[in-house]
């Protein structure tokens, strides 16, 4: 979280292309700036190295559900507006009470990539937290933020899966399975309430 102690101007420094990449390459084997941020269906890492751990530390027991979900999300990736930048200045904005009356909104908006967590509000708090959201990390229990008021039209929504039911939840949303189940329940209820001697109304 950003400190609320002035001055704030020092938070955004000069962005030197290649600086972070060189540091990352020194500690991360096979580091590449072109590596995808998020899990892809093509990774198939569990086929050769089956995980012994359950979510969120591994994929044990969730492989099939993850593959089905990735098949639905293959066309989602880092927004072009972010990917094209040679140098990216990023900020993670928390949703703690210290942000209130911090007047950090303008400083936060200067960053190239603004990451928010869970249901951190933006609407009515723009002066303190800014009004731009590049990426929002969330889990199902925190997915009750306002899509239109607290995010941009191009905000990348990223599910952080802590358990297998989280992946199942995303798959349900993507497939609109909840609506299908609702319609099926309605049809079953209609059949049960029908007088089979005459057409149902």
From TrEMBL:
GO terms for molecular function: beta-D-galactosyl-(1->3)-N-acetyl-beta-D-galactosaminide alpha-2,3- sialyltransferase; beta-galactoside (CMP) alpha-2,3-sialyltransferase activity. Its main location: Golgi. Keywords: Glycoprotein, Glycosyltransferase, Golgi apparatus, Membrane, Signal-anchor, Transferase, Transmembrane, Transmembrane helix. Belongs to the glycosyltransferase 29 family. It comes from Engystomops pustulosus (Tungara frog). GO terms for biological process: glycolipid biosynthetic process. It is a single-pass type II membrane protein. GO terms for cellular component: Golgi membrane. This is Uncharacterized protein. It is found in: Golgi apparatus membrane.
């Amino acid at each position: 979280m950003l400190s609320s102690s002035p001055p704030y101007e020092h938070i955004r420094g000069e962005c030197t292309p290649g600086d972070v990449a060189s540091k990352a390459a020194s500690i991360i084997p096979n580091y590449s700036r072109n590596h995808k941020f998020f899990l892809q269906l093509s990774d198939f890492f569990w086929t050769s190295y089956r995980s012994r751990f359950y979510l969120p530390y591994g994929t044990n027991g969730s492989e099939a559900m993850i593959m089905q979900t990735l098949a639905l999300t293959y066309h989602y990736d880092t927004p072009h507006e972010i990917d094209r930048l040679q140098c990216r200045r990023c900020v993670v904005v928390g949703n703690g009470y210290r942000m209130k009356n911090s007047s950090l909104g303008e400083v936060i908006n200067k960053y190239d990539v603004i990451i928010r967590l869970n249901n951190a509000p933006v609407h009515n708090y723009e002066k303190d937290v800014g009004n731009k959201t590049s990426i929002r990390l969330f889990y199902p229990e925190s997915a009750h933020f306002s899509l239109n008021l607290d995010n941009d039209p191009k905000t990348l929504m990223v599910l952080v899966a802590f358990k297998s039911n989280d992946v199942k939840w995303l798959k349900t949303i993507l497939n609109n399975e909840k609506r299908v189940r609702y319609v099926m329940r309605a049809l079953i209820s209609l059949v049960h309430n029908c007088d089979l001697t005459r057409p149902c109304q």
